[in-house]
């Protein structure tokens, strides 16, 4: 390579333009050869350069050069120095290749120096720098600076430029930039390009802006399999089963052959018992097309059957057919057991996963921690917490949220609070989980403090957060504060009340002995047909021994939910406490005559430790 540079220097001095351009082309080939080599070991076996009589250049090995250069950085610096001395202005490809090599070997500082000093820059130059900035802890301002510089130098961006820029817009500030870049693609006539359009679809879908994603998708002129897959996956990510299925059917009508990724995405739309038939049809498609052996499809089928089918028989069979289950396969099975209230089976499966040598990740840890909360097994939960700390997943939000929930259900509120306080940052789930934890332990004041802290951190509470606050106020006896929280939902945060919120307010008033106010609240809100509020009122009547209002509440529940046995039992207990044994016996006979039966209660104690 050094000999080529020397020959270039001679050609330039003697003004032999033909040989000069010939050497430039070979130098470019040489740089491409180095670029194809990724490690110092691979770069060693090159022979030295030889010159043929016809003044062309033959490449055998670079042994002599590599003996003189201790690293790729030294080699590139030498080439760079000679290029600067030669003042080559006509071959921008050589400069671009050198820039690419600097970035490939990690010499970011030299790459920026070269970029700033290049005599010319074209779209490839800027695309190279943009791609490198995205890979190396970029920020939105750096990307915007590169794009602005590109426009100032009158370099026209292409589809690669915009697809990279749009795909990098994931931060809070960068979300606005996506719209700016979208407008630029329209101005440049590239919004219909498959690369650019797919990046827009993916970006808007991640922002939960499905309508914008669909509009960007509709602008694409030539749709390929990747475009369809991104659109379908975006619909699934936005919890829009209707749009996902519609897109899948349009894809089939367009004679586009789907692949395993398509099926994996569309199977995720089957998440309820009513979706089982649809899920089984997709399972049949996978078998017919020979895709059923793919592990990602197996994993999605495990999740589908776990949610749509009662029990874990089908998921166990599917898991057994996977030749090499990965961590996603194991996590799907553990989550399935938890969803089907089979906590002990989930624990056994987790132990089997560890014995097989599979290491946990953040998703598997978040899935297994609820098991020990459901079993109220604090010792085992602490062992998992120790594994979290050792595995460096202690900074993960979802894992910390699961730890808070586990400690709370195991009765260790102090540990739950400690986990919450040690978190570097919180999200809505973190605060909501902590609020619910305080509510379960009757600490309404502390729950409201978390709500205030949440708002001071810039987090926006949702309906579940307010439900937790109302629950905490109810169990903490904070009636006035609870009423203010209820009003804040609509007046400040513009959230619509759901039946659970109404039931919480009724329960809160009822626990405080304000039964008449609770009944008036039901009338004022026009929720007489809501069975939950009457169940809450009946529970309060049972607590305070209020017979007449208890009768009314029980009668309402029997009308709205005739298949339930709960109102009979609660009203019978009220009769018993008031000494109305005849009324209780009549109610018991009515329960039997209606074909209803009280469910047997059960309790359990651990008989042995469950080591990990």
Model description:
This protein is mainly α and about 600 residues long. It contains 35 helices and 2 strands. It has a two-stranded antiparallel ribbon. β1 (about 50) and β2 (about 55-60) form a beta hairpin. α6 (about 90-105) runs antiparallel to α7 (about 110-115), α6 (about 90-105) runs parallel beside α8 (about 125-135) and α24 runs antiparallel to α25. The longest helix has 19 residues, at about 15-35. It starts with a helix and ends in a 19-residue tail after the last helix. Residues about 1-25 and about 30-75 have low confidence and may be disordered.
For the largest sheet, list the strands in their spatial order. 1-2
User: In percent, how much strand structure appears in the residues?
Assistant: under 5%
CA radius of gyration is 34 Å
Number of beta strands: 2
Shape: elongated
Q: How far is the first residue's CA from the last residue's CA?
A: 60 Å
Query: What structural category do the secondary elements indicate?
Result: mainly alpha
| Largest pleated sheet | 2 strands, antiparallel
Mean pLDDT: 82
Pick out the low-confidence regions.
1-24, 31-75
Helix content: 55-70%
Helix count, DSSP H or I runs of 4 or more residues: 35
Features:
disordered N terminus, mainly alpha, 35 helices, 612 residues
Please give a quick description of this structure.
With 612 residues, the protein is mainly α. It is 70% helix and 1% strand. The protein starts with a helix and ends in a 19-residue tail after the last helix.
């Amino acid at each position: 390579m050094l000999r080529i540079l020397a020959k270039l220097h001679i050609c330039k001095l003697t003004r032999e333009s033909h040989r000069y351009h010939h050497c430039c082309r070979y130098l470019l080939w040489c740089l491409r050869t180095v670029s194809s080599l990724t490690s110092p070991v691979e770069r060693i076996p090159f022979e030295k350069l030889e010159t043929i009589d016809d003044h062309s250049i033959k490449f055998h090995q670079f042994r002599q050069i590599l003996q003189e250069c201790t690293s790729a950085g030294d080699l590139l610096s030498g080439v760079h120095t000679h290029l600067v001395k030669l003042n080559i202005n006509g071959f921008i490809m050589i400069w671009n290749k050198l820039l690419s090599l600097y970035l490939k070997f990690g010499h970011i500082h030299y790459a920026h120096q070269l970029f700033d000093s290049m005599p010319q820059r074209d779209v490839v130059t800027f695309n190279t720098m943009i791609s490198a900035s995205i890979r190396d802890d970029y920020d939105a301002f750096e990307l915007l600076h590169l794009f602005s510089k590109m426009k100032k130098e009158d370099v026209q961006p292409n589809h690669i430029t915009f697809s990279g820029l749009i795909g990098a817009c994931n931060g809070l500030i960068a979300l606005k930039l996506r719209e700016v870049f979208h407008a630029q693609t329209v101005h440049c006539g590239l919004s219909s390009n498959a690369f650019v359009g797919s990046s827009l679809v993916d970006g808007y879908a991640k922002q939960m802006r499905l309508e914008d994603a669909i509009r960007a998708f509709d602008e694409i002129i030539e749709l390929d399999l990747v475009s369809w897959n991104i659109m379908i996956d975006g619909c699934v990510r936005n919890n829009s089963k209707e749009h996902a299925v519609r897109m899948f059917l349009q894809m089939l009508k367009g004679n586009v052959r789907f692949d395993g990724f398509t099926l994996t995405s569309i199977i995720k739309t089957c998440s309820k018992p009513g979706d089982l038939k649809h899920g089984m049809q997709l399972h049949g498609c996978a078998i017919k097309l020979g895709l059923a052996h793919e592990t990602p499809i197996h994993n999605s089928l495990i999740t589908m059957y776990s949610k749509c089918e009662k029990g874990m028989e089908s998921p166990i069979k599917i898991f057994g057919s996977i030749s090499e289950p990965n961590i996603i396969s194991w996590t799907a099975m553990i989550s399935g057991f938890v969803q089907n209230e089979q906590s002990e089976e989930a624990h056994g499966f987790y132990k089997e996963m560890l014995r097989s040598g599979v290491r946990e990740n953040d998703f598997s840890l978040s899935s297994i921690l609820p098991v020990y909360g459901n079993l109220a097994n604090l010792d085992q939960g602490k062992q998992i917490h120790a594994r979290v700390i050792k595995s460096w997943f202690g900074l993960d939000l979802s894992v910390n949220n699961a730890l808070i929930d586990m400690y709370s259900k195991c009765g260790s509120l102090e540990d739950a609070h400690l986990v919450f306080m040690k978190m570097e940052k919180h999200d809505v789930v973190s605060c909501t989980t902590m609020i619910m934890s305080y509510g379960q332990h009757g600490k309404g004041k502390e729950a409201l403090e978390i709500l205030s802290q949440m708002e001071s951190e810039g987090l926006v509470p949702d309906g579940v957060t307010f439900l937790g606050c109302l629950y905490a106020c109810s169990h903490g006896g904070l009636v006035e504060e609870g009423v203010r929280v209820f009003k804040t939902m609509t007046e400040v945060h513009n959230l619509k009340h759901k039946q659970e919120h109404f039931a919480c307010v009724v329960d809160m008033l009822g626990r405080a002995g304000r039964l008449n106010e609770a009944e008036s609240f039901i009338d004022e809100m026009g929720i007489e047909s809501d069975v939950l509020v009457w169940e809450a009122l009946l529970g309060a009547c049972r607590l305070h021994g209020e017979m007449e209002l208890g009768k009314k509440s029980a009668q309402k529940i029997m009308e709205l939910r005739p298949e339930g046995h709960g109102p009979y039992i609660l009203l019978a207990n009220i009769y018993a406490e008031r000494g109305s044994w005849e009324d209780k016996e009549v109610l018991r006979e009515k329960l039997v005559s209606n074909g209803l039966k009280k469910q047997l209660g059960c309790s359990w104690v651990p008989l042995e430790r469950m080591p990990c």
